[in-house]
Amino acid sequence: MTMFDLKKRVAFVTGGNGGIGLGMAKGLAAAGASIVIAGRNKTKAQSALAELHALGAQAEFVDLDVLEEQSCRQAVQHTADRYGRLDILVNNAGTTVRKQPQDLTAQEWRLVMDTNLTSAFYCSQAAYPHMVRAGGGKIINIGSMMSIFASSYATPYAASKGGILQLARSMAVAWAKDNIQVNAILPGWIDTDLTRKAREQVQGLSERVLARTPAQRWGAPDDFAGIAVFLASAASNFITGTAIPVDGGFSVQT
């Protein structure tokens, strides 16, 4: 359908070399978008690019350190210069530190907040003038179930993911006049490198997740291909400032 067609659109995906980011990048590529995946792990990126190229996508990797403001701005600018436009930004880069709040250091707090939240602000701000020039754009922030639920062992992660939801809402209000839609996706428990470590560190986590998830499985990165295309395409032109769980029913199960 034309409303889901992303041909001639350019997408910049932070942390797009694996996990949810790559799942979304593959969806965008299949719909016709050119993809720039941004991150630090070049070896991992080569595998991701092979998957994108297999879909017939024009795709490349750009080095990005999300902890550095200048790196965020330069990577976005490189993308706009390389392709002549920037239409879609996916703020997906993320990390966590699993400790009780009293045991966290200030450095650990800053690492998680800057990786998950501050980098999204930097990249969104850098993308804004290019989207205005193109006549509009789409920004997708990756939140979490912890945008709405609490966790004793992931205080900075939960705080950052609550913040990234409010960042999406605030930018949605500010930039609606520029035809820029900003929304958030709230992943449930997805099988990624990050959550595999969680299962090693948090006893009984997998059993509790499966017991609460009506779909009775962990999510997969490819489960995010469709929602990525929807929020990046004309199909969502009157949807902004919202948060959509992709969680197999986890958030509605009592």
How is the topology of this model organized?
Blueprint: E1 10-14, H1 19-30, E2 34-39, H2 42-54, E3 59-63, H3 69-83, E4 88-91, H4 106-134, E5 137-142, H5 155-175, E6 180-187, H6 193-201, H7 205-212, H8 225-232, E7 243-246
Parallel strand pairs: 1-2, 1-4, 2-3, 4-5, 5-6, 6-7
Helix pairs in contact: 1-8, 3-4, 4-5
Can you describe this structure?
The protein has 254 residues and is an alpha/beta fold. The protein has a single domain (2-244), classed as 3-Layer(aba) Sandwich (Rossmann fold), CATH 3.40.50.720. The chain has eight helices and seven strands; from the N terminus they run E-H-E-H-E-H-E-H-E-H-E-H-H-H-E. A seven-stranded parallel β-sheet has the order 3-2-1-4-5-6-7, with helices on both faces. Helix 3 packs parallel to helix 4 (106-134) and helix 4 packs parallel to helix 5 (155-175). The protein is globular and about 50 Å long. The relative contact order is 0.16. The model has no long low-confidence stretch (mean pLDDT 95).
Look at the structure and give the mean pLDDT.
Answer: 95
Overall structural domain count: 1
* Percentage of residues in helical conformation: 40-55%
Largest sheet: 7 strands, parallel
Count of distinct strands: 7
CATH class: Alpha Beta
Features:
single chain, alpha/beta, Rossmann fold, 254 residues
